[in-house]
C-alpha cells in the first residue's frame, strides 16, 4: 500500500514513515507543506495521503484545504487527516457527503500503533476512521427531542464506535462481546433512530454520521 | 449680572444706546413707603382735581358734570395704578414711571381751571404736559426706551409743543375773551406781557391743530408702522399700541370737534369712548409689561428644565421661555474658533437682516450665541436671564460631553485590552498545540518505535520502562491539551459558543443541561460568555455541592445573556474568589454587567449581560 506523508515536524514525519514502512506500507513521499503535498499526490497517485491540518506557511488550515482538494480531484486517493486538536467542524466539512476513504484522527492516536495502522488500512480500503473525540462531540450535541436519549449507555457506546468507522468485528474486539450481541445492539440503534439498516459497513457509517450531523 | 463675568452684547444696529442711562432709583423696586405715598398723593390729588372741575367749570352744564369729572379723574387713576404696578413688577423698565408721571400730570392738569392766578398760570403752562407724557409712555413701550429716530423726534416735538405754546399763550392772555375749553370767568395770567385776544385764540387753535392734528396723526402713523414692520412675536407684544392709536385718534377727534364745532351732536358719544379708551390704554400697557415679566418668571423654570436637557434640547427650551420659535443657538467651538449648531455645522452669525444676535460670554471667552427675533432686544432683562440660564446649561452640557467622551475612551480601551488578551490567549493555545504538544507526540512515537524494535531490547525491563515513558508522555499531551483548552478553547474560535458550551458540559463531572442560542457573535462576546460559564461551572463543581447545573444563553435587548444556575448550597460572593471578580471586570470591560444571586441554601444563579451589536 502506497502512502504519502505531509507533516511539517520532521521528527514526527520520520517516525510515522518508519512505523508505516516497518508495517508493510510503501512510503512514496514525505513532504513538509501543502504545495509539495499536492505535487506529490499528483505525481505518485498513492493509496492514502496522511495530512497534518496545520502546516506552513500560515499554520492555520493549509493541510485541511489541501485534503479537500485532493479528495475532489483524486477520489481514488484516501485521505487521513491528523490534527493536534479536535475541530469537529473541520472534520465534518472534510468528509461532508463522502466518508468513504476518509479519516480524521488526533495526532497522539499514532502512539497506539496497531490501532493507528488499522485505521490507515481501513481508510485506504475505502473505509472511515473518525476520532472518538469528534464522535463524542457529535453524539454529545444537543438536539431538540433528542432520539439519542432513548439509547441505552451500551447502545451509545456502540453508536460511537460505528461513527468512528469500525466494523462489527472491530466493535466486538473493542467491547469484548460476541458478534451476535453487537448485531442486536446495532439493530436496536437503527430502529430507535428510525434509520434503514444498511447492507455494508460504509453505508452504515454514512447513515450514522448523517444522523449525528443533522 | 454685571461683574459676574457674564457679558451681554447687543448689536448697535437695532439699539442706539444699549447702556441707556436709566436713573438708579428706577432700577429698584419702589419701597412700601414710596408706594404708599404715591397712592395717598393720587387719591388726594384725585379729589382736588374733581373739586377744581366742579367748583370752576360747573356753570357750563353739559361740559362738566360730576360723572364726567369723576371719569376724568378715573383716567388719571388708571395711569397711576398701571404705572405703580408696572414699576413694582418691572423695576428697571421706564414705562412704569412714565405712566405714573402721566397720571399725576393728568390730575394736576385740572388745576389750570382754578381761579387762583398763580395756580392758573402754573398749571395752564404745564397742563398739556400730561398728553406728551402719555405719548412718551406709549412710544417707550415695551422696552422703556424710545429707540427709533422718528419716534424720538416726535417725543421731543411733543414736549417742546406742550411746554412752549401754552407758555406763550399766557404772554398774551388778558382775559378780554374766554379761553377755549374754559368757563367764561376771566382768569389773570401772571405772565401777561401784552394782551391780545386774537393772538390767544390763534395760539390755542394752533395748538389743537398742531398737537391733535399733526403730531397725533404722526403718532398714529408711527405706531402703525411699528406694527406693520414687526415680526409675529413682536406684534403680539405690541398689541396694546393699537389701543393707544385708537385712544389718541379719539382724543384728537374730540379736541377738534370741541374746538371747531359749536354744538357737537356726537360730543357725548365721543367723550365716553375717549374715556374708555384712555382707561384701557394704561391697563393694556401694564398687562403687556407683566406678560413679559411672566416670561421672565418662566426663565426660572428654564433653569430647571435646562438642567435635565441634552444640548439639542437647549434650543427648544430657550425658544419656549423666550416665546420665540425662530430662535437658533450657535455653540462656540474653542478649538475651531467658530460657532456651530448642535450638529456641529458651522454657523455664520447674521448682521442685521431682521435677526438679532445675543452673545453669551464666560470670562471673555464666548460660550454660545443666540440668534433671535429683534423684538427680544426690547426685553433685555429677559434675554439676560434666559441667556445666563442657558450659559450654565451649555457649560454643563459641554462638561458632560467631555466626560462622556473620556468615559467612552476608557470604555473603548478596556474593550481593546480584553480583545488583545483574547488574541494573546488564542496565540498561546496555538503555540501549545503546535509546539510543545507536537514535540511530545513525536518524542513518544520515537520511544514507541524503540519499544517495538524486535530482538535488540528483548529485556522486558526496558520494554516496561519505554511503555511507562510513552504513557507518561501521553498523559503530558492530554494535560497540555486541557491546559490549552483552558487558555482558549479552539472549539470556541472554530465553532462558536454553543459548541464550546456543549463541549464544556460534556466534560463536566456534573450533569449540565444547556439552553444555548445557536448563532455566531463577535469573538470577544463569545469568549467572555464562555469564560463566565466556565468559571461559574468550575465554582459549582468545587464549592456548590450541587446535583445539577443549567447553562443558558440567549439574546435580549441587544445583549447576550449568559446564565449559570445550580441547586447547591448557595452563599457565593464575588469577594470570595478572584475568579468571579476577574469575570466581573471582564464583563464590565465590554460594557456589561455580572450579577450573582446566591442565597444561603438556595442555589446560585450567575447572570452575565454582555452588550453585542450584531
Overall description:
The complex is a heterodimer of chains A (214) and B (614). With 214 residues, chain A is an alpha/beta fold. Chain A is 53% helix and 14% strand. Chain A has 10 helices and 6 strands; from the N terminus they run E-H-E-H-E-H-E-H-E-H-E-H-H-H-H-H. A 6-stranded parallel β-sheet of chain A has the order 2-1-3-4-5-6, sandwiched between helices. In chain A, helix 3 links the parallel strand 3 and strand 4. In chain A, helix 2 packs parallel to helix 3. The mean pLDDT of chain A is 85. Chain B has a 5-stranded antiparallel β-sheet, covered by helices on one side. In chain B, a hairpin with a 2-residue loop joins strand 7 and strand 8. In chain B, helix 2 runs parallel beside helix 4, helix 6 packs antiparallel against helix 7 and helix 8 runs antiparallel to helix 9. Chain B is of the alpha+beta class. Chain B is rod-shaped, with a radius of gyration of 46 Å. The N terminus of chain B is likely disordered. Classes of the chains: A alpha/beta (214), B alpha+beta (614).
- Strand and helix order of chain B: EHHHHHHHHHHHEEEEHHHHEHEEHEE
Identify the most extensive interface between protein chains. A-B, 27 and 33 residues
**What spatial form of chain A do the alpha-carbon principal axes imply?**
globular
Instruction: Tell me the major beta sheet of chain B.
Output: 5 strands, antiparallel
> Mind summarizing the main beta sheet of chain A?
6 strands, parallel
Helix content of chain A: 40-55%
Low-confidence stretches of chain A: none
Going by helix content, strand content and strand pairing, the class of chain A is alpha/beta
How many individual β-strands of chain B?
10
H/E series of chain A: EHEHEHEHEHEHHHHH
Task: Return the average pLDDT of chain B rounded to an integer.
Answer: 82
Strand order of the largest sheet of chain A: 2-1-3-4-5-6
Query: How many DSSP H or I helices of chain A?
Result: 10
Proportion in β-strands of chain A? 5-15%
Amino acid at each position: 500500500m502506497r502512502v504519502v506523508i505531509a507533516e511539517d515536524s520532521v521528527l514526527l514525519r520520520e517516525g510515522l514513515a518508519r512505523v508505516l514502512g516497518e508495517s508493510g506500507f510503501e512510503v512514496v513521499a514525505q513532504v513538509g507543506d501543502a504545495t509539495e503535498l499536492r505535487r506529490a499526490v499528483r505525481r505518485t497517485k498513492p493509496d492514502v495521503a496522511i495530512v497534518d491540518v496545520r502546516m506552513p506557511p500560515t499554520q492555520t488550515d493549509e493541510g485541511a484545504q489541501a485534503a479537500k482538494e485532493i479528495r475532489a480531484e483524486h477520489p481514488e486517493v484516501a485521505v487521513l487527516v491528523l490534527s493536534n486538536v479536535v475541530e469537529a467542524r473541520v472534520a465534518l466539512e472534510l468528509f461532508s457527503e463522502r466518508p468513504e476513504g476518509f479519516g480524521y484522527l488526533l495526532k497522539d492516536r499514532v502512539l497506539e500503533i496497531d490501532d493507528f495502522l488499522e485505521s490507515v488500512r481501513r481508510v485506504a480500503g475505502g473505509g472511515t476512521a473518525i476520532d472518538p473525540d469528534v464522535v463524542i462531540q457529535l453524539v454529545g450535541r444537543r438536539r431538540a427531542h433528542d432520539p439519542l436519549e432513548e439509547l441505552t449507555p451500551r447502545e451509545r457506546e456502540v453508536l460511537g464506535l460505528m461513527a468512528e468507522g469500525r466494523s462489527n468485528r472491530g466493535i466486538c474486539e473493542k467491547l469484548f462481546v460476541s458478534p451476535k450481541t453487537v448485531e442486536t445492539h446495532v439493530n436496536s440503534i437503527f430502529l430507535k433512530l428510525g434509520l434503514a439498516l444498511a447492507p455494508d459497513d460504509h453505508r452504515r457509517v454514512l447513515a450514522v454520521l448523517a444522523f449525528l450531523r443533522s | 449680572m454685571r461683574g459676574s463675568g457674564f457679558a451681554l452684547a447687543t448689536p448697535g444696529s437695532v439699539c442706539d444706546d444699549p447702556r441707556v442711562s436709566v436713573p438708579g432709583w428706577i432700577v429698584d423696586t419702589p419701597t412700601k413707603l414710596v408706594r404708599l405715598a404715591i397712592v395717598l398723593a393720587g387719591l388726594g390729588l384725585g379729589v382736588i382735581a374733581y373739586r377744581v372741575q366742579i367748583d370752576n367749570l360747573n356753570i357750563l352744564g353739559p361740559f362738566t358734570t360730576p360723572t364726567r369729572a369723576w371719569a376724568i379723574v378715573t383716567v388719571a387713576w388708571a395711569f397711576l395704578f398701571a404705572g405703580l404696578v408696572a414699576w413694582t413688577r418691572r423695576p428697571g423698565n421706564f414705562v412704569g414711571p412714565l405712566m405714573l408721571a402721566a397720571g399725576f400730570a393728568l390730575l394736576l392738569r385740572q388745576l389750570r381751571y382754578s381761579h387762583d392766578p398763580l395756580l392758573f398760570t402754573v398749571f395752564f403752562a404745564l397742563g398739556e404736559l400730561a398728553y406728551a407724557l402719555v405719548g412718551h409712555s406709549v412710544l417707550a413701550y415695551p422696552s422703556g426706551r424710545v429707540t427709533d429716530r422718528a419716534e424720538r423726534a416726535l417725543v421731543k416735538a411733543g414736549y417742546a409743543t406742550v411746554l412752549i405754546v401754552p407758555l406763550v399763550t399766557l404772554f398774551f392772555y388778558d382775559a378780554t375773551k374766554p379761553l377755549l375749553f374754559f368757563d367764561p370767568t376771566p382768569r389773570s395770567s401772571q405772565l401777561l406781557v401784552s394782551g391780545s385776544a386774537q393772538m390767544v385764540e390763534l395760539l390755542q387753535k394752533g395748538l389743537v391743530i398742531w398737537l391733535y392734528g399733526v403730531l397725533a396723526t404722526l403718532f398714529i402713523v408711527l405706531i402703525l408702522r411699528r406694527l406693520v414692520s414687526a415680526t409675529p412675536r413682536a406684534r403680539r407684544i405690541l398689541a396694546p399700541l393699537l389701543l393707544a392709536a385708537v385712544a389718541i385718534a379719539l382724543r384728537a377727534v374730540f379736541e377738534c370737534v370741541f374746538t371747531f364745532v359749536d354744538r357737537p351732536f356726537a360730543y357725548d358719544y365721543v367723550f365716553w369712548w375717549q374715556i374708555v379708551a384712555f382707561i384701557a390704554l394704561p391697563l393694556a400697557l401694564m398687562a403687556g409689561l407683566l406678560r413679559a415679566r411672566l416670561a421672565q418668571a418662566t426663565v426660572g423654570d428654564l433653569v430647571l428644565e435646562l438642567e435635565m436637557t441634552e444640548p439639542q434640547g437647549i434650543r427648544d427650551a430657550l425658544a419656549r421661555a423666550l416665546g420665540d420659535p425662530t430662535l437658533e443657538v450657535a455653540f462656540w467651538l474653542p478649538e475651531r474658533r467658530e460657532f456651530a449648531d448642535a450638529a456641529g455645522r458651522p454657523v455664520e452669525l447674521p448682521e442685521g437682516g431682521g435677526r438679532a444676535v445675543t452673545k453669551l460670554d464666560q470670562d471673555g471667552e464666548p460660550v454660545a450665541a443666540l440668534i433671535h427675533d429683534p423684538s427680544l432686544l426690547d426685553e433685555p432683562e429677559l434675554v439676560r436671564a434666559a441667556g445666563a440660564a442657558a450659559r450654565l446649561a451649555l457649560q454643563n452640557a459641554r462638561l458632560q460631553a467631555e466626560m462622556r467622551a473620556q468615559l467612552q475612551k476608557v470604555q473603548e480601551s478596556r474593550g481593546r485590552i480584553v480583545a488583545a488578551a483574547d488574541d494573546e490567549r488564542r496565540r498561546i493555545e496555538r503555540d501549545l498545540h503546535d509546539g510543545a504538544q507536537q514535540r511530545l507526540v513525536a518524542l513518544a512515537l520515537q520511544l514507541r518505535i524503540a519499544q517495538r524494535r524486535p530482538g535488540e531490547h528483548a529485556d522486558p525491563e526496558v520494554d516496561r520502562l519505554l511503555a511507562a515513558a510513552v504513557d507518561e508522555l501521553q498523559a503530558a499531551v492530554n494535560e497540555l491539551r486541557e491546559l490549552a483548552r483552558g487558555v482558549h478553547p479552539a472549539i470556541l474560535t472554530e465553532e462558536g459558543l454553543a459548541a464550546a458550551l456543549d463541549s464544556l458540559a460534556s466534560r463536566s463531572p456534573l450533569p449540565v443541561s444547556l439552553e444555548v442560542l445557536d448563532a455566531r457573535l463577535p469573538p470577544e462576546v463569545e469568549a467572555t460568555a464562555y469564560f463566565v460559564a466556565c468559571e461559574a461551572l468550575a465554582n459549582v463543581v468545587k464549592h456548590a455541592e450541587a446535583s445539577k447545573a443549567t447553562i443558558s444563553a440567549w439574546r435580549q435587548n441587544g445583549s447576550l445573556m449568559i446564565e449559570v444556575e445550580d441547586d447547591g448550597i448557595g452563599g457565593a460572593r464575588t469577594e470570595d474568589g478572584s475568579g468571579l471578580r476577574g469575570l466581573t471586570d471582564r464583563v464590565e470591560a465590554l460594557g456589561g454587567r455580572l450579577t450573582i444571586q446566591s442565597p444561603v441554601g438556595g442555589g446560585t444563579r450567575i447572570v452575565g449581560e454582555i452588550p453585542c451589536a450584531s
